[in-house]
């Protein structure tokens, strides 16, 4: 997936915080800055499970 649909990104929220997500095209992840989590995108499908997300250090 080279680009995520803007309307889909607006509809998706962080399942942990309910906050917005930022699309990182190079890493193929959706970033939740409020939860410090990165949700993977696999085969064009966002995996919106906290157990599948990786922790990130956002400063």
Mean pLDDT: 90
Radius of gyration: 10 Å
Order of helices and strands: HEEEEE
- Overall, the morphology is globular
Features of this protein?
59 residues, mainly beta, 1 helix, single chain, 10% helix
Quick rundown:
The chain is mainly beta and 59 residues long. It is built from 1 helix and 5 strands.
Account of the protein in words:
By secondary structure, the chain is mostly beta strands. It is 10% helix and 29% strand. The protein contains one helix and five strands; from the N terminus they run αβββββ. It has one helix at residues 6-11, and strands at residues 22-24, 29-32, 37-42, 45-46, 54-55. A hairpin with a 4-residue loop joins strand 1 and strand 2 (29-32).
Topology:
Layout: H1 6-11, E1 22-24, E2 29-32, E3 37-42, E4 45-46, E5 54-55
Antiparallel strand pairs: 1-2, 2-3, 3-4, 3-5
């Amino acid at each position: 997936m080279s680009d995520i649909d803007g309307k889909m990104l607006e509809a998706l929220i962080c399942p942990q915080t309910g906050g917005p997500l930022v699309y990182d095209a190079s890493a193929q992840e959706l970033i939740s800055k409020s939860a410090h989590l990165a949700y993977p995108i696999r085969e064009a499908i966002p995996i919106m499970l906290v157990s599948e997300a990786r922790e990130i250090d956002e400063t």
